[in-house]
Write a structure and sequence with these properties.
single chain; about 50 residues; mainly alpha; 2 helices; about 0% strand
Amino acid sequence: MNAREDRTLAEVKHGYERTPKLLPYDILVDTTQCDSELVAREVIKAMTLKV
């Protein structure tokens, strides 16, 4: 099971693979090299620019 425990891994994989193709992202932030505070700042900055 996954962390949510209400979906199987197959359901998680299906959603992961299909969602970006059907619903465009508002923003895309790379969190692999950043701490949470920097990520939050980037999200706020990106959302502010979209308005």
